[in-house]
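Fold it.
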Amino acid sequence: MKKDFFKDPKIKFPAYEPWISSDDQKIVKKALNQSMLTFGPQLEKFETDFCKYTKAKYAVAVSNCTAALHLSLKALGIKKDDEVIIPDLTFVADANAVLACNAKPIVTDINKENFFLSISNVKKNITKKTKAIIPVHIYGQVCNIEELLDVARDNDLKVIEDCAHAVGTFHNSKHVGNLGKTGCFSFYPTKNITTAEGGMVTTNSKKIAEKIRQLRSHGMTKSLKSRYSSGYPWVFDIVEPGYNYRMDEIRAALGITQLKRINKINELRKNASLYYHKNLQNIPGIILPDMVNDKSHSYHLYTIRVTKPFKLSRNQLFKKLKYNGIRTTVYWMPIHKYSAFRKFAKVSNVVNTSKIYNEILALPLFPTISKKHQDSVIKVIKSS
């Protein structure tokens, strides 16, 4: 186990730890010895391999998931004064990507019984300005995507799937990211596969894929490879202003070997999740995550809810675990609690999110977590 990144001598057990293998290190070193460190063979292979794994027709690697969300919104024509429905319980990237298009995030409540968008609240928030919905496959579990797709069809709305937690999450044997117009994936260090920083957009539309490829590299009409093979690499057009959202060869190389291990990674995460599930049963006030639909789950996080009659509040349990050398955390503070979004977003009645936010706690979970680590967590919870 690696030393605590934040150099806290009291911490013996981290909340997460990336699994970097010797193969990961070898391929990164190989990429570093290439003559070109961007838009090369590693990027092409990573995109191809991701298509094969997800069965998406197109995959476009980008600098991070926020870029993936932003590019998806732009490619789908989201513009100034449009409205996009997002859940209150999500990472700020969803709201930031909408605002980057000069559109307005419509922050919407989640269900009482789970962490998914409330269908009734989604319907209430649809106006003439509503153009899209961003559902989140939160913690690695498929959201209520069928219901949301029905609402989207009935109201002519685009669906952009936030798949940041969901490499290895399936719905009826179809990998998420294939259900809406695009899927947006994250390869942040805590995710099921990592490229340190990085993201991917999947789509089954050639038109959307081409648009995203242009926008990720300043709006250029030609790729780096085609520019040099044409004889005049400086000759290309900018069809519209774009961005530098490229993924480099080093991170793409790391993604290739990480993706090769995804089945093993998710199996280890599943085993660790089931171990928690088995040993934390029947504790009054501790609500365990729904594991019924486990064949479609990627086990990104194992998040419990701390409710009455448990003797400690969520924050008290967090502090007790930390006192015993165990890091835990919360995913996330709701969007409505950030001052920027109170100003720039529209927030509806978010009573369910407000309640659930004060209950949730993500226990340590990563592929190489030991039984000793988990037993320490379980012991603290059971003794509380």
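The first strand starts at residue 58 and ends at 62.
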